[in-house]
Amino acid sequence: MKIALINENSQAAKNTIIHDALTSVAGSFGHEVFNYGMYSAEDSASLTYPMNGILAGILLNSKAADFVVTGCGTGTGSMLACNAMPGVFCGLIIDPTDAFLFNQINAGNCISMPYAKGFGWAAELNLEDCYRKLFENEAGAGYPRERAAVMKVNRDVISDLKAAACHDMLTVLKTIDQDLLKSAIAGEKFAELFYPNSQDEAISDYLRGL
């Protein structure tokens, strides 16, 4: 699985801590992490949490990534921005129980975490525990197990609602503020990481054209 990491500007200084925790756990399950930054608070390309959502939408809809890990100060802003995008199902993950239940019940493709609120001593251990609970089990197995079938029905309903309520990603990219979009893909490694992995030529071509 290809996992994309996205950090916004207020918590950019923690990218190394988050990336190290994510790669140490994801790698043990055979997953590959792609770090889209921000890499430091001094990066020339600054990401806001609305841009996190745009990036998550681009990466997941183009299949350049299978899963996105993002966040902000509280995690809530990035979660809302991600869930505004077609095909993105993002959960707010604060502790390992959240991660386990999101994986088993919701089986989404994106998480948002708080990197300021509650991010204190041994925060990196909580990150590792959350990632482990997120990736160690087959997604959508259900909890409790006897409700797995009902939970799958509800996931399908949510998916159908999202499809009915949202435009396709290419339409979104053409419709949103183009300066905002350009800023969202201005990271120093975006082109290097995205274009070789994208499986949607229409999205890739449109972004190249910007």
What would you say this structure looks like, in words?
The protein is α/β, with parallel strands linked by helices and 210 residues long. 50% of the residues lie in helices and 10% in strands. The protein has a five-stranded parallel sheet with strand order 2-1-3-5-4, with helices on both faces. α4 links the parallel β4 (90-92) and β5 (110-114). The longest helix is centred in the last third of the chain and has 18 residues, at 148-165.
List keywords for this structure.
five-stranded parallel β-sheet; single chain; 210 residues; alpha/beta
Question: Summary?
Answer:
The chain has 210 residues and is an alpha/beta fold. 50% of the residues lie in helices and 10% in strands.
Report Rg: 16 Å
The helix content is 40-55%
Strand count, sense and closure of the main sheet? 5 strands, parallel
Distance between the termini: 29 Å
List the helices and strands and how they pair.
Elements: E1 2-5, H1 15-28, E2 32-35, H2 49-61, E3 67-72, H3 76-83, E4 90-92, H4 96-106, E5 110-114, H5 123-135, H6 148-165, H7 169-175, H8 178-184, H9 190-194, H10 201-209
Parallel strand pairs: 1-2, 1-3, 3-5, 4-5
Helix pairs in contact: 1-5, 2-3, 2-8, 4-5
